[in-house]
Amino acid sequence: MSTPTVETHSAALDAVEAGAVQPITVTFRIRRFNPEEHPDPVWVDYQLTLDPKERVLDALNRIKWEQDGTLTYRRSCAHGICGSDAMRINGRNRLACKTLIKDVNPEKPITIEAIKGLTVLKDLVVDMDPFFQAYKDVMPFLITKGNDPTRERLQSAEDRERFDDTTKCILCAACTSSCPVFWNDGQYFGPAAIVNAHRFIFDSRDEGAEQRLEILNDREGVWRCRTTFNCSEACPRGIEVTKAIQEVKRALVTRRF
Ligand code: SF4
Ligand code: FES
């Protein structure tokens, strides 16, 4: 949940005020929802004059700090690392902190709404519990047998490369909440959980692959994927999500990983 702060001026805004950049006036059309006030969501417009190189998160912060303190959204790092500010911007899942205003057609109102497929709690904040439950269900940790090692578990560069892509996940849910199968069936594990299973299934040091594959062989597992590529397109980390899902499917068939 966002936390109010006393800061009201960004460096970019200062630059605008100093005349160093050409400011533009932009309308942000935000889908607001407060179940304590009204059972239905409502679109509300906010106007800001800002540097087009500012980020959507900067705009949300200014709206909250300068116009309406009740606007609710998650964010933390502001640098694409914590994964907390995935939202639909102009109908596409993106991280607000990684999206520049100039890149989302600011000549027209920029629409901002919560990601789909998860229950909206308030404004842009969704209930992430089902998402994180699916993540936990695939056991996203190293599983080994035998005695504890006396030194770190070594691995060749080639073996590390095998799952390098899927280590980059920041659990933002942009992939899972862009998946039409997940929209229709919230029981589906979803791309993010499969990505994180992949990260361990293909780790040469791990001995829990068979367990994870059996979990994903479930009727709500990898076979629900329809390869629409929404997930790969949505991922702000550039992870080849669909490819990872395909590799898990292949491992289930061949039992080679
Ligand atoms: S795979 Fe990409 S889009 Fe999906 S949760 Fe991880 S970082 Fe986010
Ligand atoms: S605020 Fe952390 S990823 Fe955007």
The arrangement of helices and strands along the chain is HEEHEEEEEHHHHHHH
Shape: elongated
% residues in beta strands: 5-15%
- In the CATH scheme, what's the topology name of the largest domain? Fumarate Reductase Iron-sulfur Protein, Chain B, domain 2
In the CATH scheme, the class of the largest domain would be: Mainly Alpha
Domain count: the total is: 2
Mean pLDDT over the residues: 93
Biggest sheet strand line-up: 2-1-5-3-4
Q: What share of the residues lie within helices?
A: 25-40%
CATH superfamily caption of the largest domain: Alpha-helical ferredoxin
User: Which molecules are bound besides the chains?
Assistant: iron/sulfur cluster, FE2/S2 (inorganic) cluster
Given the structure, what is the number of helices?
9
Low-pLDDT stretches are 1-8
SS class: alpha+beta
The total of beta strands comes to 7
Radius of gyration: 21 Å
Largest sheet: 5 strands, mixed
Q: What is the annotated CATH architecture of the largest domain?
A: Orthogonal Bundle
Distance between the termini: 39 Å
Description:
It contains nine helices and seven strands; from the N terminus they run αββαβββββααααααα. Mean pLDDT is 93; it is low at 1-8. The chain starts with 10 loop residues before the first helix and ends with a helix. The strands form two sheets. It has a five-stranded mixed β-sheet. β6 (120-122) and β7 form a beta hairpin. The chain has 257 residues and is an alpha+beta fold. It has two domains: 11-126, Ubiquitin-like (UB roll), CATH 3.10.20.30; 129-254, Alpha-helical ferredoxin (Fumarate Reductase Iron-sulfur Protein, Chain B, domain 2). It binds iron/sulfur cluster and FE2/S2 (inorganic) cluster. FE2/S2 (inorganic) cluster binds at residues 75-78, 80-85, 95, 97.
